[in-house]
Design goal:
By secondary structure, the chain is α/β, with parallel strands linked by helices. The chain has helices at residues 42-46, 101-108, 118-128, 141-150, 160-163, 180-191, 223-230, 245-249, 269-278, 289-297, 384-404; strands at 7-12, 17-24, 29-36, 54-58, 62-63, 82-85, 87-88, 111-114, 131-136, 169-170, 212-217, 234-239, 255-258, 284-287, 302-318, 324-335, 344-350, 356-361, 366-369. Helix 9 crosses helix 10. The radius of gyration is 21 Å and the shape is globular. Mean pLDDT is 91; it is low at 198-208. Pathway: Pyrimidine metabolism; UMP biosynthesis via de novo pathway; (S)-dihydroorotate from bicarbonate: step 1/3; Amino-acid biosynthesis; L-arginine biosynthesis; carbamoyl phosphate from bicarbonate: step 1/1. InterPro entries: Anth_synth/Amidotransfase, CarbamoylP_synth_ssu, CarbamoylP_synth_ssu_N, CarbP_synth_ssu_N_sf, Class_I_gatase-like, CPSase_GATase1, GATASE.
Amino acid sequence: MTDVRGDMYLVLEDGSVYPGKRLGAEGETTGEVVFNTSMTGYQEMLTDPSYGGQILVPTYPMIGNYGTSEADVESTRIQVNGFVVRDDCEEPSHPLSEGTVHDYLLENGIPGISGVDTRAITRKLRSAGVMMGIITPNADVDIALATLAKAPRYGEFDVVGDVSTDDIYAWNGDAGEESRAFFDLRGRARQGGMGVNVERGIGMRDLGDNYMKVVVNDYGVKLNILRSLRARGCEVIVVPDDASAEDILSHNPDGVMLSPGPGDPELLDRSVATAKGLSGKVPMMGICLGHQVIARAFGASTFKLHFGHRGGNQPVKDLESGRVYVTAQNHGYAVDPAGLPDGLEVSHINLNDQTVEGLRHRDMPIMTIQYHSEASPGPHDSEYLFDRFVGLIQAGQAEKTDATV
């Protein structure tokens, strides 16, 4: 049985107040208030590092009906500053459920609020744009606004350093790789031709047997990116966000992945310098923030979106094939196509607002996407992009082999 839950309030910086009941930990929290339109995947949202520094509002009204599970996490902890829902389920129904969302937030020390009109909040953010907010047990709006005014504003501080790893480590799997979801993921990889011999396990193959080493520069990586690479036969090494190009190249990678992450890419000069140092030396893929970092490394600029793209239903067109994919997204910044250098060309566009959703380099083995090809929990439409990246790696390996013959 959950504990008694008192009154809580969400106060936006424009003075709007949304009363409800405490969800999760007692206390107060501030952050940029954003909404996500996915119908499932609340635990993946909560543990997605790209939500660092933000208060998350799912638009789907019932949250927690299938509980929480260790297999559904995308990082080692809850990453959001706060959580706002219409209704939370106190009696989840799922054979793998390990507890309620309320208990999950409580155990992780994250404040939230339930019973608020999330539709009204979403309509306001769509109209006025994302804004700072505070979740507080204090009913005095003036005090809440005074506290909010003193809080650091999202986009004015480096969030990546708070969510990235401090250590270099080899990814050897987690509980997610014991789930049915990973079994299905590996099956889709094999159907795409990139999962051959995966069942033999990393480290059990000869170097010439579909062996690929990928270094992931962690700006806030989702674990399903690491799972998706392993499902395609890659050895995965994860390095901190402040790793230099020399640090990364010292691992002799066959490819480098620049991960997603939170915050404004304008604050990441160190990461831009790393991307510059890697360009042309190793096949490279950037996802979300990694995409923006690569674009800035080639001289492009980025800008903040009005309310961002967050959800599992964003239509994106692959300009090479002409196909349209339903994608999972979580970002508040985008690349300005007007500032692209000659070497980079747009590979994908968002059909809702025509913003840039992917880039490729004309001469170097570099590809980027603004959305999440790893999805988790879905949709799975864009997993082919991991196959495309592995194809770049294999082409590079073939060139090295030809050069030594």
